[in-house]
Amino acid sequence: QEQEQEQEQENGVIMGGSSSKPQQPSFMDHVKSTVEDEIAKRAMMQREVQMSLSIAKARDTLQIFGSAYMLLVTGLTSARLVGKTIPHVAGIPVVIGGLVLGNMADMAYGNKLQRVMKEAEYIMDNERARFVPPKQAFFAYKYTDVEKSLLFDKSTAVGQLWPSSMWARPPK
To answer: Rounded to whole angstroms, what are the CA distances from 123 to 37, 47, 51, 118?
Structure first.
């Protein structure tokens, strides 16, 4: 009989009086749910604003550097068509500029943001040890010893690596 009562309590049914009714969520549960929803809405809005600003900046940068790149390429092409000699070194900014502008265009108008998000999700799911903070961080206790050992046991302090190890602190 005690097991039946425990099961009914777990299922939210209260036995008593003449009838049994499902347990109603408390006012605090409702307030907590409402506050969590509001926080989620605000976080979503902040994320959308940040993402739209990032895309807008990429488009602006693309317009500025795209114009400069087109001016360079047009000038070099015009000089070549007129018959002037162009140094071979002038080809370097043309190639590098094309690669950089392609990357900017991918961010501004392509699906680079989605690819970066997928990679970020993969890192958060499979490489959690990369986020472990130094032990002095006030939230470091939230990480398990296994997560801490995955990254910190294999690494060396920067001061212990060459060439800074020549004048840095002695190893302990």
So the answer is: 26, 19, 19, 9
Q: What pLDDT, in 10s, does the model give residues 95-134?
A: 999 999 999 999 899 888 899 889 989 888 888 888 888 8
* Residue written as token pair 């990357």: 103
Question: Which H helix or E strand runs over 28?
Answer: helix 27-82
Q: Measuring CA to CA, which residue among 51, 90, 50 is closest to residue 74?
A: 90
Per-residue pLDDT at 6 exceeds 70: no
Name the amino acid, one letter, at 63.
Answer: Q
The CA distances from residue 28 to 34, 42, 65, in Å, are 10, 21, 55
Q: Residue 134 is which amino acid?
A: P
| CA angle centred on 147, ends 146 and 153, rounded to 5° | 80
